[in-house]
Amino acid sequence: MRTFTTSLALSVAFVATALAASPFSDTQLACRTATHDDSLIVRAYGDQDVIELLCHATGSATFNRTTEWVRTNDYCYLPAYFIQLDDATSQKLPKCTDIDGEKPCVLPNLAGFKLIERYDGFLDHPQVDPLTGLTFIGFSHLCESGDCTRESITKKEATVLLWQDIRVVTACLTQMLSVGVSPRARLAFNDNMWSALASWTFSIGCDQAAQSPLIRRIKNGEPLMAVVAAELPKWNSVNGKTVAKLTARRDAELSLFRTSSSRRAFPHCDRR
Question: Which residues form the signal peptide (predicted)?
């Protein structure tokens, strides 16, 4: 897939309405999960950032009533109003609908994000997990490589970290559901199913998910709904003790998994 690079320092038209609407600062532009202003903000681009544009899409009207948006290489959307492309680049930039469906979704849907945020909880400063001895911040972001040197973090900053972490989880899910699958298994997940599995994997870790009876039975071609309904609720304990919060989370994930949707997520993604 070809990408088109443009520097925000040159291409973003920061106008008064944009500055007022920016949730980060007057020199940053919010990038959203979908093509409307009510969608989740997951990335902020500064005026010195270089961004890669993947495609353009039509969505809800934004600041100047235009309905055009652009998707970046971070798989989030910016109002096209703020991206000034030359004619040659604009003509080459494909429609998102023309390139979608090539791969699984790299992110859960908004319901999945909200579920993760709700049950993981927000830590505004680094805290040590007494069970593992590991240090976390934000929405269960593991502190490593010096990324928790600050004393505190905002929810917006934590959301950006969650956006990055969840992409690792969906990559792990994609890998485990693409290797060693029985020929009789016809794996197809809508966005609610995919998001529920992403939340579960985010909660227990990729290694445990990959070795779980849930994934093994899915890959063996057993009935999907029956397997998830039987196996998902079992992951509600720590050191052999049932945890009420984990029970509630598994119930929420199972409910989301069972929620019908026409939007595909795996093995092909319908991004809108």
Answer: 1-20
Q: How many Å apart are CA 18 and CA 27, to the nearest integer?
A: 10
**Residue-wise burial string across 189-222, b where 16 or more C-beta atoms lie within 10 A, e elsewhere:** bbbbbbbbbbbbbbbeebeebbebebbebbbeee
Find where tokens 């830590």 sit.
123
Q: What single-letter DSSP state applies at residue 12?
A: B
Q: What is the pLDDT of residues 185-217, one digit of tens each?
A: 989 999 999 999 999 999 999 999 999 999 999
The answer to whether the beta carbons of residues 250 and 189 sit under 8 Å apart is no
Query: Do 100 and 270 touch, CB atoms closer than 8 A?
Result: yes
- 5 three-state secondary structure: strand
| Distance between CA atoms of residues 80 and 147, nearest Å | 32
- Residue 46 DSSP code: E
Q: Which residues contact 91 (CB under 8 A, 6 or more apart)?
A: none
Rounded to the nearest angstrom, the gap between the alpha carbon of residue 242 and the centroid of all alpha carbons in its chain is: 29
110-266 carries CATH number 3.60.70.12? no
pLDDT in tens, 51-71: 888 888 888 766 667 788 888
Residue ranges per structural domain of the chain: 4-99, 110-266
Strand order across the beta sheet in which 135-138 lies: 123-128, 135-138, 141-142
Mean pLDDT of 81-96: 70
Complete DSSP assignment for 89-101:
HHHHSPBHHHHTT
Residue 43 scores a pLDDT above 90? no
